[in-house]
Design brief:
13 helices; 79% helix
Protein backbone atom coordinates (compact mmCIF):
# COMPACT_ATOMS: atom_id res chain seq x y z
CA UNK A 1 0.00 0.00 0.00
CA UNK A 2 1.36 3.40 -1.00
CA UNK A 3 1.80 6.17 1.54
CA UNK A 4 -0.55 8.47 -0.39
CA UNK A 5 -3.29 5.84 -0.07
CA UNK A 6 -3.03 6.15 3.72
CA UNK A 7 -2.58 9.91 3.99
CA UNK A 8 -2.65 12.69 1.44
CA UNK A 9 -2.49 16.21 2.84
CA UNK A 10 -4.69 17.80 0.18
CA UNK A 11 -7.28 15.03 0.34
CA UNK A 12 -7.30 15.16 4.13
CA UNK A 13 -7.76 18.94 4.06
CA UNK A 14 -10.85 18.61 1.88
CA UNK A 15 -12.26 15.83 4.03
CA UNK A 16 -11.57 17.71 7.26
CA UNK A 17 -13.46 20.78 5.99
CA UNK A 18 -16.34 18.52 4.94
CA UNK A 19 -16.27 16.79 8.34
CA UNK A 20 -16.25 20.16 10.08
CA UNK A 21 -19.32 21.31 8.14
CA UNK A 22 -21.15 18.04 8.80
CA UNK A 23 -20.42 18.15 12.52
CA UNK A 24 -21.42 21.82 12.71
CA UNK A 25 -24.70 21.02 10.97
CA UNK A 26 -25.51 18.23 13.43
CA UNK A 27 -24.23 19.80 16.63
CA UNK A 28 -24.13 23.60 16.31
CA UNK A 29 -27.27 24.27 18.36
CA UNK A 30 -26.30 21.95 21.21
CA UNK A 31 -22.78 23.34 21.23
CA UNK A 32 -24.09 26.91 21.28
CA UNK A 33 -26.32 26.15 24.27
CA UNK A 34 -23.41 24.52 26.12
CA UNK A 35 -21.06 27.40 25.26
CA UNK A 36 -23.59 29.99 26.45
CA UNK A 37 -24.41 28.13 29.66
CA UNK A 38 -22.52 30.80 31.59
CA UNK A 39 -24.81 33.49 30.15
CA UNK A 40 -27.89 31.36 30.89
CA UNK A 41 -26.77 30.85 34.50
CA UNK A 42 -26.03 34.56 34.80
CA UNK A 43 -29.50 35.57 33.59
CA UNK A 44 -31.14 33.00 35.88
CA UNK A 45 -29.15 34.15 38.93
CA UNK A 46 -29.89 37.83 38.31
CA UNK A 47 -33.61 37.16 37.79
CA UNK A 48 -33.83 35.11 40.99
CA UNK A 49 -31.98 37.80 42.92
CA UNK A 50 -34.34 40.50 41.68
CA UNK A 51 -37.39 38.35 42.40
CA UNK A 52 -36.48 37.27 45.95
CA UNK A 53 -34.21 40.01 47.34
CA UNK A 54 -34.73 42.91 44.97
CA UNK A 55 -30.97 43.11 44.40
CA UNK A 56 -28.98 42.76 41.20
CA UNK A 57 -26.24 40.22 41.74
CA UNK A 58 -24.47 37.94 39.29
CA UNK A 59 -23.10 34.46 40.12
CA UNK A 60 -19.74 34.41 41.89
CA UNK A 61 -16.55 33.09 40.28
CA UNK A 62 -16.50 29.71 42.02
CA UNK A 63 -19.98 28.87 40.75
CA UNK A 64 -19.09 30.01 37.23
CA UNK A 65 -15.94 27.87 37.24
CA UNK A 66 -18.00 24.87 38.36
CA UNK A 67 -20.51 25.52 35.57
CA UNK A 68 -17.67 25.78 33.05
CA UNK A 69 -16.24 22.40 34.09
CA UNK A 70 -19.67 20.75 33.91
CA UNK A 71 -20.35 22.33 30.50
CA UNK A 72 -17.06 21.04 29.07
CA UNK A 73 -17.80 17.55 30.40
CA UNK A 74 -21.26 17.62 28.78
CA UNK A 75 -19.62 18.70 25.52
CA UNK A 76 -17.14 15.80 25.63
CA UNK A 77 -19.89 13.25 26.25
CA UNK A 78 -22.44 14.49 23.71
CA UNK A 79 -20.38 15.81 20.79
CA UNK A 80 -19.05 12.43 19.52
CA UNK A 81 -22.54 10.92 19.45
CA UNK A 82 -24.06 13.85 17.58
CA UNK A 83 -21.24 14.13 15.06
CA UNK A 84 -20.24 10.49 14.50
CA UNK A 85 -22.92 8.30 16.06
CA UNK A 86 -24.77 7.93 12.76
CA UNK A 87 -22.01 5.93 11.09
CA UNK A 88 -23.38 2.83 12.83
CA UNK A 89 -26.67 3.32 10.95
CA UNK A 90 -26.95 1.47 7.65
CA UNK A 91 -28.14 4.34 5.45
CA UNK A 92 -25.83 7.07 6.72
CA UNK A 93 -22.93 4.73 7.48
CA UNK A 94 -22.85 3.22 4.00
CA UNK A 95 -22.70 6.67 2.40
CA UNK A 96 -20.02 7.72 4.90
CA UNK A 97 -17.87 4.70 4.08
CA UNK A 98 -17.91 5.64 0.40
CA UNK A 99 -16.43 9.08 1.00
CA UNK A 100 -13.07 9.19 -0.84
CA UNK A 101 -10.77 9.35 2.19
CA UNK A 102 -8.68 6.70 3.91
CA UNK A 103 -9.62 5.20 7.27
CA UNK A 104 -6.60 6.91 8.83
CA UNK A 105 -7.73 10.30 7.54
CA UNK A 106 -11.26 9.77 8.85
CA UNK A 107 -9.96 8.75 12.28
CA UNK A 108 -7.52 11.67 12.38
CA UNK A 109 -10.31 14.09 11.51
CA UNK A 110 -12.55 12.56 14.22
CA UNK A 111 -9.84 12.85 16.85
CA UNK A 112 -8.94 16.43 15.95
CA UNK A 113 -12.59 17.46 16.01
CA UNK A 114 -13.24 15.69 19.32
CA UNK A 115 -10.22 16.65 21.40
CA UNK A 116 -9.21 20.00 19.87
CA UNK A 117 -11.62 21.86 17.61
CA UNK A 118 -14.95 21.47 19.45
CA UNK A 119 -13.63 21.85 23.04
CA UNK A 120 -11.38 24.81 22.22
CA UNK A 121 -14.09 26.63 20.25
CA UNK A 122 -16.68 26.02 22.96
CA UNK A 123 -14.28 27.08 25.73
CA UNK A 124 -13.41 30.28 23.86
CA UNK A 125 -17.10 31.18 23.50
CA UNK A 126 -17.80 30.38 27.15
CA UNK A 127 -14.78 32.24 28.54
CA UNK A 128 -15.25 35.17 26.15
CA UNK A 129 -18.86 35.56 27.22
CA UNK A 130 -17.81 35.32 30.87
CA UNK A 131 -15.17 38.03 30.40
CA UNK A 132 -17.68 40.31 28.66
CA UNK A 133 -20.28 39.84 31.41
CA UNK A 134 -17.76 40.58 34.17
CA UNK A 135 -16.59 43.69 32.30
CA UNK A 136 -20.15 45.00 32.08
CA UNK A 137 -21.34 43.87 35.51
CA UNK A 138 -18.95 44.20 38.46
CA UNK A 139 -21.20 42.07 40.71
CA UNK A 140 -19.72 39.01 38.96
CA UNK A 141 -16.31 39.68 40.37
CA UNK A 142 -13.22 38.51 38.47
CA UNK A 143 -13.51 36.82 35.09
CA UNK A 144 -12.45 33.19 34.71
CA UNK A 145 -9.66 33.81 32.16
CA UNK A 146 -7.33 35.79 34.47
CA UNK A 147 -8.02 33.24 37.22
CA UNK A 148 -6.93 30.38 34.94
CA UNK A 149 -3.68 32.20 34.19
CA UNK A 150 -3.09 32.86 37.89
CA UNK A 151 -3.85 29.19 38.64
CA UNK A 152 -1.25 27.97 36.17
CA UNK A 153 1.33 30.54 37.32
CA UNK A 154 0.83 29.48 40.93
CA UNK A 155 1.21 25.76 40.38
CA UNK A 156 3.87 25.82 37.64
CA UNK A 157 6.10 28.73 38.63
CA UNK A 158 5.66 28.93 42.39
CA UNK A 159 3.97 25.66 43.40
CA UNK A 160 2.47 24.90 46.77
CA UNK A 161 5.45 22.62 47.32
CA UNK A 162 7.65 25.68 47.94
CA UNK A 163 5.48 27.14 50.67
CA UNK A 164 5.06 26.57 54.39
CA UNK A 165 6.39 23.71 56.46
CA UNK A 166 6.48 21.36 53.48
CA UNK A 167 9.93 22.74 52.57
CA UNK A 168 11.35 20.66 55.43
CA UNK A 169 10.34 17.47 53.56
CA UNK A 170 12.11 17.42 50.15
CA UNK A 171 10.60 14.09 49.03
CA UNK A 172 7.07 15.18 50.00
CA UNK A 173 7.62 18.56 48.31
CA UNK A 174 8.72 16.77 45.13
CA UNK A 175 5.61 14.56 45.21
CA UNK A 176 3.25 17.50 45.75
CA UNK A 177 4.92 19.54 43.02
CA UNK A 178 4.57 16.70 40.52
CA UNK A 179 0.91 15.91 41.14
CA UNK A 180 -0.12 19.58 41.37
CA UNK A 181 1.02 20.42 37.84
CA UNK A 182 -2.13 21.13 35.75
CA UNK A 183 -0.50 19.78 32.58
CA UNK A 184 -0.36 16.33 34.19
CA UNK A 185 -4.12 15.98 33.73
CA UNK A 186 -4.36 17.00 30.06
CA UNK A 187 -3.95 13.40 28.91
CA UNK A 188 -6.78 12.39 31.29
CA UNK A 189 -9.09 14.90 29.58
CA UNK A 190 -8.03 13.58 26.17
CA UNK A 191 -8.69 10.05 27.39
CA UNK A 192 -12.26 10.93 28.39
CA UNK A 193 -12.92 12.42 24.96
CA UNK A 194 -11.48 9.39 23.17
CA UNK A 195 -13.49 7.01 25.36
CA UNK A 196 -16.79 8.67 24.43
CA UNK A 197 -15.74 8.84 20.77
CA UNK A 198 -15.08 5.10 20.83
CA UNK A 199 -18.45 4.51 22.48
CA UNK A 200 -20.20 6.60 19.82
CA UNK A 201 -18.90 4.43 16.97
CA UNK A 202 -18.91 1.03 18.67
CA UNK A 203 -22.38 0.98 20.21
CA UNK A 204 -25.42 1.07 17.95
CA UNK A 205 -27.91 2.38 20.53
CA UNK A 206 -27.86 3.95 23.97
CA UNK A 207 -24.36 5.14 23.13
CA UNK A 208 -23.70 7.53 26.03
CA UNK A 209 -25.27 5.32 28.71
CA UNK A 210 -23.50 2.21 27.46
CA UNK A 211 -20.20 4.07 27.28
CA UNK A 212 -20.50 5.14 30.91
CA UNK A 213 -21.49 1.61 31.98
CA UNK A 214 -18.58 0.16 30.02
CA UNK A 215 -16.21 2.55 31.77
CA UNK A 216 -17.52 1.51 35.18
CA UNK A 217 -17.28 -2.19 34.29
CA UNK A 218 -13.73 -1.83 32.93
CA UNK A 219 -12.65 0.09 36.03
CA UNK A 220 -13.97 -2.68 38.25
CA UNK A 221 -12.23 -5.40 36.22
CA UNK A 222 -8.91 -3.54 36.19
CA UNK A 223 -9.16 -2.89 39.93
CA UNK A 224 -9.64 -6.60 40.61
CA UNK A 225 -6.88 -7.53 38.16
CA UNK A 226 -4.17 -5.29 39.66
CA UNK A 227 -5.08 -5.96 43.30
CA UNK A 228 -2.83 -9.06 43.62
CA UNK A 229 0.11 -7.16 42.12
CA UNK A 230 -0.42 -4.12 44.35
CA UNK A 231 -1.03 -5.98 47.59
CA UNK A 232 2.65 -6.19 48.60
CA UNK A 233 3.22 -2.54 47.82
CA UNK A 234 0.08 -1.46 49.67
CA UNK A 235 1.07 -3.48 52.75
CA UNK A 236 4.45 -1.74 52.81
CA UNK A 237 2.78 1.63 52.26
CA UNK A 238 0.28 1.03 55.09
CA UNK A 239 3.07 -0.12 57.42
CA UNK A 240 5.08 3.02 56.74
CA UNK A 241 2.00 5.20 57.23
CA UNK A 242 1.59 3.83 60.77
CA UNK A 243 5.13 4.77 61.77
CA UNK A 244 5.35 8.28 60.38
CA UNK A 245 6.59 9.71 63.67
CA UNK A 246 9.57 11.61 62.32
CA UNK A 247 10.81 13.62 59.37
CA UNK A 248 12.93 10.69 58.24
CA UNK A 249 9.89 8.38 58.20
CA UNK A 250 7.94 10.83 56.03
CA UNK A 251 10.89 11.12 53.66
CA UNK A 252 11.23 7.34 53.38
CA UNK A 253 7.53 7.03 52.58
CA UNK A 254 7.62 9.56 49.75
CA UNK A 255 10.89 8.18 48.42
CA UNK A 256 9.13 4.93 47.49
CA UNK A 257 9.25 4.15 43.77
CA UNK A 258 5.70 5.01 42.76
CA UNK A 259 5.52 8.02 45.07
CA UNK A 260 8.84 9.35 43.80
CA UNK A 261 7.88 8.99 40.14
CA UNK A 262 4.11 9.54 40.43
CA UNK A 263 3.89 11.93 37.47
CA UNK A 264 5.89 9.64 35.18
CA UNK A 265 3.84 6.58 36.16
CA UNK A 266 0.57 8.48 35.59
CA UNK A 267 1.75 9.82 32.22
CA UNK A 268 2.85 6.39 30.99
CA UNK A 269 -0.40 4.81 32.16
CA UNK A 270 -2.57 7.47 30.49
CA UNK A 271 -0.51 7.40 27.29
CA UNK A 272 -0.87 3.63 26.96
CA UNK A 273 -4.61 3.87 27.65
CA UNK A 274 -5.03 6.63 25.04
CA UNK A 275 -3.06 4.68 22.43
CA UNK A 276 -5.29 1.65 23.06
CA UNK A 277 -8.38 3.83 22.60
CA UNK A 278 -6.97 5.22 19.34
CA UNK A 279 -6.31 1.68 18.18
CA UNK A 280 -9.88 0.62 18.98
CA UNK A 281 -11.27 3.64 17.13
CA UNK A 282 -9.13 2.94 14.06
CA UNK A 283 -9.99 -0.78 14.13
CA UNK A 284 -13.70 0.03 14.26
CA UNK A 285 -13.50 2.45 11.32
CA UNK A 286 -11.31 0.07 9.33
CA UNK A 287 -13.63 -2.91 9.79
CA UNK A 288 -17.09 -1.32 9.96
CA UNK A 289 -19.58 -2.82 7.51
CA UNK A 290 -23.28 -2.46 6.88
Amino acid sequence: MKTKDIFNFRRFGKYFVSDLRSCASNYWLSMLLISLMGLIIYIGTVCMGLAFTGEWSGPDKSFRVFTFVVSMFVLMTTMPVKCYGKITEKRFGTAWLMIPASSFEKVLSMVLMTIFVAPILSACIYLGTDALLCTIDNTCGAAIIPSVREFFDFFINESIATEGDIQAFPALAHFVKEISCPWLYVDDIIGISLWFLAGAIWFKSGKTAKTILAFIALSMVLSMAITPFMSTYMKEFAMRMTVMDSQEAVERLFNMGIMRHAALVDTINDTVANLIMLGLIYFRIKTIKH
